[in-house]
Specification:
alpha+beta, four-stranded antiparallel β-sheet, three-stranded antiparallel β-sheet
């Protein structure tokens, strides 16, 4: 008789947690990305900085950030970084675990492969 109650209570708890995350996971979460300098030339180093801030009690156990960046930047390897390259753009994927009330600032070094490159914030 206790096994059915255990299964029902476990499923109920999973539904409650799922609803909480669906409604509140992205609230009070901010993200910004910028480059260390506004312009560089071929062969120079530049640092791309990603800042993520979680301003709530709810932690985010899995946060995946994706962005498309010009292929002229060549990123170094990191544990939480995945880069897949195309002909014009490369897809940049970062994975984070974000605890409650945390501010993460992650810098990623890259080198300019060809020509001049301008960086700007949107």
């Amino acid at each position: 008789m206790s096994l059915p109650w255990f299964i029902i209570s476990t499923l109920s708890l999973l539904v409650i947690v799922s609803v909480i995350y669906q409604r509140n996971a992205l609230k009070k979460l901010s993200y910004s990305r910028y480059f260390s300098v506004s312009a560089v030339y071929q062969g120079e180093q530049i640092e791309m900085v990603e800042e993520i801030v979680n301003r709530k009690l709810l932690p985010l156990p899995w946060l995946r950030l994706e962005s498309s960046i010009a292929r002229g930047l060549e990123f170094g390897s990191q544990d939480n970084l995945g880069v897949s390259s195309g002909e014009i753009y490369q897809n940049h994927i970062s994975l984070f675990y974000l605890r409650s009330y945390r501010h993460i600032s992650a810098g990623i070094r890259s080198a300019v492969r060809s020509g001049a490159c301008s960086a700007w914030n949107r």
